[in-house]
Specification:
1 helix; eleven-stranded parallel sheet; elongated
Length: 553
């Protein structure tokens, strides 16, 4: 019995000794026998860090290129102050390798860059779980290979963070049978302040995907345009209930024949959040942002340049962005794009169009900011001003497309041209204003090629400057004018001295053969306005017989 008991204890001791020799916290040796992580002799003590509680520590070494020959799970990787610059590689083995980091993550105290290389052949991954962080001054390079499809080279789960790391994902270089690498964020993970560079490929581009309830945080994300003919640019996708956070997300253009720009896609129930999205132009193709989300796109700042394109899809009822600027292209596939809410006043000088053969698109301006449209737009679903200011400053075409313009609240102004009918006010509520010179330093004439209607809760603000026998005033040119009972007229400006009798201020030029219908409540026909001691008489049959003029008496 004693012999059997002694034998059993000996076996248990040997088993325990074997286990601890194969797993435990350890420091990479100064002179390891090889560059294989999974060889115990390369660590001090001679044990392979491969347990959820293990810490792999790295200091000065003569062998700084490591590779994993089997999957490993650790709490953290710690690079001590003064440590050598390491390169840790996944993808030298013919089998799939996973490095799972689930505790403190990567702690880089070395003061220099630490590199990780993930080859997607056959399907290698670094997984961050729990609260793990990808570290500071860490660079992850993801290389394509394997079978046709997508391989996520780094995956973030739970509350893990990309921290301040840099991720460079390269698209495939083979024509077929290549697996494209990418970075995937799931659960409540965050890209934090990371830099994510998504490069094009020969048949498939690299990707970065924000899914689950993840966020792009304050990251800098760049999807680069194609560098080969008829090949795809890098792709960044926000899906699930993820958000763009406060990130800067850029899609660059392509300069090669047949190339496509970088691609950003916001879909499902996701939102762009407060992100800044930049769509750059290219010699051949520009970057693309595709909004196909069923949630408001958020308060994102959208900048579209050159042949960059913002695509807004039909059936998305609350497509809201914070602001729009640049000189690029906006395509509305039957959608209403609501603009405003991020406190930025912007100018968009590009073109807003309906998609060829598709249903009419529309624009709605909200919030207290201003949006200036200076391009010749052709969208046909109409324009609504429900807050802030919409300025038409185009010199050709129509700033607001071909549809009608309705001001329910806020201000419509500018010295541009509007082709559709304009209605100011909705009969109740107040706050609907037409003011051609709003925000400008000089008087302006707003040209409306169709009729203008002032509803009972509307106000026409007309500015002027005058002295002696000279006068400048705002004006509206419209093909038909209707003024509802209760609409008001505000004449704002300064007259210096005594004005010459007979001096005329034309405030509405009616190009229709029909007379003006109605009068402003505070300016009946024949009323006298007193302006700095000068008397001006209102005449709704002035000019060529059907204009509204104010004449010095």
């Amino acid at each position: 019995m004693n012999s059997a008991r002694h034998f059993l204890l000996t076996c248990l001791f040997c088993a325990f000794t074997f286990t601890t020799a194969r797993a435990g916290s350890a420091t990479w040796a100064f002179t390891p026998a090889s560059g294989d992580w999974n060889t115990a002799a390369n660590w001090l003590p001679a044990t392979v860090p491969n347990d959820p509680a293990d810490v792999a520590t790295f200091d000065v070494t003569r062998v700084a290129h490591l590779s994993l020959s089997a999957s490993v799970q650790v709490d953290s990787l710690v690079f001590n102050p003064g440590a050598t610059g390491y390169t840790i590689i996944l993808g030298t083995s013919p089998t799939s390798i996973t490095l799972t980091i689930g505790g403190a993550g990567i702690v880089n105290n070395s003061g220099i860059v630490q590199n990780f290389v993930v080859n997607s052949l056959p399907s290698n991954q670094i997984n961050f779980t729990g609260p793990a962080r990808a570290g500071v001054m860490t660079v992850f390079t993801n290389v394509a290979g394997g079978n046709l499809g997508l391989a996520t080279s780094e995956q973030f789960f739970d509350q893990s963070s990309a921290d301040h790391a840099t991720f460079i994902s390269d698209g495939n270089s083979a024509q077929m049978n290549s697996l494209t690498p990418g970075v995937l964020f799931l659960d409540d993970s965050t890209a934090d302040h990371a830099v994510l560079i998504i490069n094009p490929g020969r048949t498939l581009s690299a990707q970065t995907i924000f899914g689950g309830n993840s966020t792009a945080g304050n990251a800098t994300v760049t999807a680069n345009g194609g560098t080969l003919s008829h090949k795809f640019g890098g792709r960044a996708t926000i899906t699930g209930t993820a958000t763009g956070g406060d990130a800067t997300i850029t899609a660059t253009g392509s300069d090669v024949a047949g190339g496509t720009g970088g691609f950003i896609n916001c879909m499902d129930l996701s939102t762009l959040g407060n992100a800044t999205v930049i769509l750059q132009g290219g010699a051949v193709a520009g970057g693309i942002l595709q909004l196909a989300t069923q949630s408001p796109a958020g308060f994102a700042r959208i900048e579209v340049f050159g042949n960059g394109i913002l695509e807004v899809f039909q059936g998305m009822p609350m497509m809201t962005i914070g602001s729009l600027e640049g000189d690029g292209n906006v395509e509305l596939e039957g959608a209403t794009l609501t603009i405003g809410g991020n406190s930025l006043s912007t100018t968009f000088s590009g073109v807003i169009v309906d998609v060829d053969g598709g249903p009419a698109g529309a624009i709605s301006k909200v919030s207290s900011t201003s949006l200036e449209l200076s391009g010749a737009n052709t969208y046909s679903g109409g324009t609504t001003v429900a807050g802030g200011t919409l300025i038409a400053s185009n010199t050709t075409g129509s700033a607001t497309g071909t549809g009608a313009v309705t001001v329910t609240a806020g201000t419509l102004g500018g010295a541009g041209t509007i082709s559709g009918a304009v209605t100011v006010g909705r009969g109740s509520g107040g706050g609907a204003i037409l003011a051609p010179a709003h925000g400008a330093k000089q008087q302006a004439t707003l040209k409306i090629l169709s009729a203008v209607t002032f509803d009972s809760d509307s106000t026409y603000i007309c500015t002027f400057k005058a002295r002696s026998n000279q006068a400048r005033t705002d004006s509206i040119t419209a093909n038909g004018v209707a003024i509802g009972a209760g609409a008001s007229f505000n004449f704002v400006g300064q007259a210096q001295g005594t004005l010459r009798a007979g001096l005329v201020f034309k405030v509405i030029s009616n190009t229709s053969a029909n007379p003006i219908s109605g009068t402003f409540a505070n300016l009946p026909d024949g009323a006298i306005l007193n302006v700095n001691g000068n008397s001006l008489k209102a005449n709704y049959e002035g000019g060529d017989g059907n204009d509204l003029t104010l004449t010095v008496q």
